[in-house]
C-alpha cells in the first residue's frame, strides 16, 4: 500500500512521509522517531542536535546565492495522535501506519493517518535532503509531544536557535495562513467512592455509544459534532431518575485533544423495570439521533442485556452527583471571538470519563485565545466537579499565540499565494493549539507564520490528506524559500 503513496507527486514529499509513517511515534513514546530523525540528519552530514527534552534540530547551510537571506526555522512535531476504530486490530507501539490512496485522498486503514503533523515533518525532510532547491540557511526544528502537552516546545531553551523567521507547517487548510492560535489547559477531576453490592433481583445491561465522527477538539469543536461522553451521560441521567439505574463502570473517550467517539457503560436495573427501561431508552435514543441526524448520521446507541450482572455498583448518592456534574459541565463552544469573524475564542472538550472499581476520572481540555477566559471556563468546570466531591487539577497550561498583523513574512506569503492561485489567502487565527505561542516565550523577536496542506478528520480514524492540495502546498513552500527577505544590515 505504501508504494502506491510513494508514487504520488511530489515524490520527494510523499516518500519522506512514507518513511516517517513506517516508524511508530505515539506522543510520550517518541524514542524511535527521535533516533530515526537523528540518524537522518547525521547521514546528510549536517549538524544534528538532540536537546535535553528530545527535540531534534538539524542545521543546513544556505544554497549558493542565498547566503544573504535571513535564517529560517522550519518547524513541525514528530508525534501523532493514535486513534483506531474498535474493530481495527492494530498496535501503534510496533506497527507502521498502513496507507492507501482513495481518489484525491491518502487515508489509513482504520487508524489515524499521521498527516498531522507528518506531512510537515516530511516537507522539512525533503528540503533538507534536496540538492536542487534554493533556500536560505535552515534550522529544522522537530519537536516532541505536541499532541499531549506541548512539552517539547515548552522545553526548548532560548539560545538554541538563531533563525529570525519561523515557518510552522501544522495547519490543515491550504487556503489559510495562520497568524495566531488558542492556548489550552488540562482539567482533571478525580474521586473515589465505596462500591456497594448489586441489589438482588437486578439485571445487567451494556449501553454503547459509537459511530460518531470524532475529530480535533480545537479545529472541529464548532461543528456541532456529538460527544460520546455527553450522550452517554444523558442516557444514564434518565435511566437513574426514572428507573433507579446504577452504574457499574463507564469507559468513554481516549485523548484530550480528540472529540470522544465512543463510550461503553455497564449498568444494572431492577428486574421489575426491565421492559419499561428498554422502551423508555429507545425513545431517548430516537430523540438524540433526530437532534444529531445532520452532523452524526452514523451514530449508533445500543442497549443490550449483559451476559453476567455486575457484582458491584456505584452508590446512588455518588451517582446522583456524578451525572449532574457531567450534565452541568460545559462541552463545546463557550464563546466566539469578538475580534475575528467566525473564530472560536473559548471552548471545552469533555474528553474522557472513566468510572469503576471505586474510582472516577474525568479529563477535559479547555482552550481559549484569551488567557483569562481560558481559566474562567476552567474554573467553571472545577466548580462543578468540586461540588460533587472531586479533587480538580489544572496542568499542562500553554499560552496562545498573539497575532501580528504587521509580520514581514506574512506579506511574503500572502503575495506569493495570490500570485500562484489568483485569489487571496485567508489570514486567520485558529482555535487549535499551535506551538508558536510557546516558542515565542523564549524567542519573542522571531517572526512566525503557520500554514500547511489540506487535512480533514485529524485526530480520528477518518483522517485524510488531499493529494492535489499537497501539490499546491509544495509549490507554495518552494517559492516561499526563494523569497525569504534579505538580512537586516
UniProtKB/TrEMBL annotation:
Any one GO molecular function term: metallodipeptidase activity
TM spans (from-to): none
Segments forming domain Peptidase M20 dimerisation: 208-293
EC number: 3.4.13.18
Superkingdom per UniProt: Bacteria
Substrates-to-products reaction catalysed: Hydrolysis of dipeptides, preferentially hydrophobic dipeptides including prolyl amino acids
Cofactor or coenzyme needed: Zn(2+); Co(2+)
GO CC aspect terms: cytosol
Biological process, per Gene Ontology: proteolysis
Keyword terms of this UniProt record: Cobalt, Dipeptidase, Hydrolase, Metal-binding, Metalloprotease, Protease, Zinc
Family, per entry: Belongs to the peptidase M20C family.
PANTHER family recorded: CYTOSOL NON-SPECIFIC DIPEPTIDASE
Protein name: Cytosol non-specific dipeptidase
Organism of provenance: Flavobacterium profundi
Gene that this polypeptide is encoded by: pepD
Amino acid at each position: 500500500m505504501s508504494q502506491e503513496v510513494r508514487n504520488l507527486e511530489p515524490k520527494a514529499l510523499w516518500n519522506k512521509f512514507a518513511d516517517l509513517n513506517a516508524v511508530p511515534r505515539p506522543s510520550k513514546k517518541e524514542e524511535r522517531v527521535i533516533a530515526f530523525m537523528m540518524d537522518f540528519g547525521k547521514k546528510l552530514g549536517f549538524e544534528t542536535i538532540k536537546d535535553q527534552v528530545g527535540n531534534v534540530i538539524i542545521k543546513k547551510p544556505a544554497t549558493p546565492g542565498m547566503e544573504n537571506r535571513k535564517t529560517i526555522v522550519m518547524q513541525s512535531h514528530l508525534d501523532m495522535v493514535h486513534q483506531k476504530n474498535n474493530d481495527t486490530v492494530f498496535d501503534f507501539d510496533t506497527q507502521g501506519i498502513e496507507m492507501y490512496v482513495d481518489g484525491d485522498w491518502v487515508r489509513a486503514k482504520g487508524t489515524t493517518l499521521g498527516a498531522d503533523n507528518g506531512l510537515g515533518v516530511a516537507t522539512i525532510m525533503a528540503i533538507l535532503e534536496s540538492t536542487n532547491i534554493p533556500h536560505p540557511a535552515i534550522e529544522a526544528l522537530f519537536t516532541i509531544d505536541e499532541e499531549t502537552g506541548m512539552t517539547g516546545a515548552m522545553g526548548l531553551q532560548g539560545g538554541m536557535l538563531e533563525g529570525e523567521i519561523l515557518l510552522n507547517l501544522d495547519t490543515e487548510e491550504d487556503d489559510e495562513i495562520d497568524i495566531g492560535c488558542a492556548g489550552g489547559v488540562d482539567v482533571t477531576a478525580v474521586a473515589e467512592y465505596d462500591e456497594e453490592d448489586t441489589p438482588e433481583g437486578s439485571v445487567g445491561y451494556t449501553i454503547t455509544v459509537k459511530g460518531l465522527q470524532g475529530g480535533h477538539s480545537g479545529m472541529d469543536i464548532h461543528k456541532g459534532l456529538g460527544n460520546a461522553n455527553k450522550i452517554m451521560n444523558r442516557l444514564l441521567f434518565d435511566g437513574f431518575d426514572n428507573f433507579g439505574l446504577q452504574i457499574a463502570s463507564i469507559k468513554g473517550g481516549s485523548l484530550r485533544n480528540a472529540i470522544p467517539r465512543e463510550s461503553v457503560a455497564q449498568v444494572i436495573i431492577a428486574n421489575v423495570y426491565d421492559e419499561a427501561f428498554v422502551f423508555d431508552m429507545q425513545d431517548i435514543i430516537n430523540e438524540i439521533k433526530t437532534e444529531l441526524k445532520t452532523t452524526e448520521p452514523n451514530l449508533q446507541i445500543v442497549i443490550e442485556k449483559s451476559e453476567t450482572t455486575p457484582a458491584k455498583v456505584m452508590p446512588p448518592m455518588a451517582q446522583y452527583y456524578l451525572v449532574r456534574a457531567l450534565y452541568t459541565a460545559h462541552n463545546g463552544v463557550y464563546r466566539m471571538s469578538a475580534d475575528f469573524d467566525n473564530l472560536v475564542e473559548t471552548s471545552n472538550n469533555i474528553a474522557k470519563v472513566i468510572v469503576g472499581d471505586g474510582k472516577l476520572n474525568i479529563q477535559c481540555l479547555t482552550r481559549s485565545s484569551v488567557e483569562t477566559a481560558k481559566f474562567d471556563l476552567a474554573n467553571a468546570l472545577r466548580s462543578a466537579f468540586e461540588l460533587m466531591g472531586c479533587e480538580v487539577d489544572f496542568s499542562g497550561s500553554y499560552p496562545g499565540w498573539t497575532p501580528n498583523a504587521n509580520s514581514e513574512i506574512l506579506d511574503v506569503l500572502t503575495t506569493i499565494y495570490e500570485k500562484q492561485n489568483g485569489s487571496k489567502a485567508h489570514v486567520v487565527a485558529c482555535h487549535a493549539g499551535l506551538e508558536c505561542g510557546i516558542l515565542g516565550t523564549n524567542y519573542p523577536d522571531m517572526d512566525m507564520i503557520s500554514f500547511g496542506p489540506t487535512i480533514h478528520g485529524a485526530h480520528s480514524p477518518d483522517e485524510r490528506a488531499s493529494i492535489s492540495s499537497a501539490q499546491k502546498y509544495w509549490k507554495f513552500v518552494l517559492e516561499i524559500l526563494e523569497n525569504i527577505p534579505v538580512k537586516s544590515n
